[in-house]
UniProtKB/TrEMBL annotation:
Family: Belongs to the EutP/PduV family.
Any GO BP annotation: biogenic amine metabolic process
Keywords: Nucleotide-binding
Organism: Brevibacillus parabrevis
Gene3D superfamilies in the record: P-loop containing nucleotide triphosphate hydrolases (3.40.50.300)
This protein's name: Ethanolamine utilization protein EutP
GO molecular function: ATP binding
Length: 147
């Protein structure tokens, strides 16, 4: 693999669990305190997406990535990304909806939030718990980073 995937999203949106699912790692996820590099993935702290003071750090870190994955938790009732946020990155962005298996999940609402920030880019509904959508997402991302 030559490229990298940068994963961004709110605190407790399921980013670290998603990374573990992408690597078939069954260890429990823990809070990401700083940028974490794992093979072809860059996992970012949720604070970076929630606080506009950190947007510059996300933009700078994205220069190390081939693609940016914007994560939206299906159980959340607000969007943590500003409208058009994906346009601030020099590379392509895709969306991932996490926790689609959760009883409180509203996948349509989550997709609507991502569309506001992402436009018409591809969106993958996933569950790190049941692995729903994870193999498709993994294959898609690995194809992009290996090009």
């Amino acid at each position: 693999m030559t490229g990298r995937v940068m994963i961004i999203g709110a605190i407790e949106a399921g980013k670290s669990s998603l990374v573990k699912a992408l690597f078939n790692d069954e260890q429990p996820a823990r809070k990401t305190q700083a940028l974490e590099y794992r093979d072809w993935v860059i996992d970012t702290p949720g604070e970076y997406s929630e606080n506009p003071m950190f947007y510059r750090t996300l933009m700078a870190t994205s220069l190390e990535a081939t693609i940016v994955v914007m994560v939206q938790d299906a159980t959340r009732d607000r969007n943590y990304f500003p409208p058009g946020f994906a346009q601030g990155f020099p590379q392509a962005c895709v969306g991932v909806i996490t926790k689609v298996d959760h009883p409180d999940a509203d996948v349509q609402r989550a997709e609507g939030y991502l569309r506001q920030s992402l436009g018409d880019a591809r969106i993958f509904p996933t569950s790190s718990y049941t692995s729903e959508g994870v193999p498709e997402l993994r294959a898609y991302l690995q194809e992009i980073v290996s090009e």
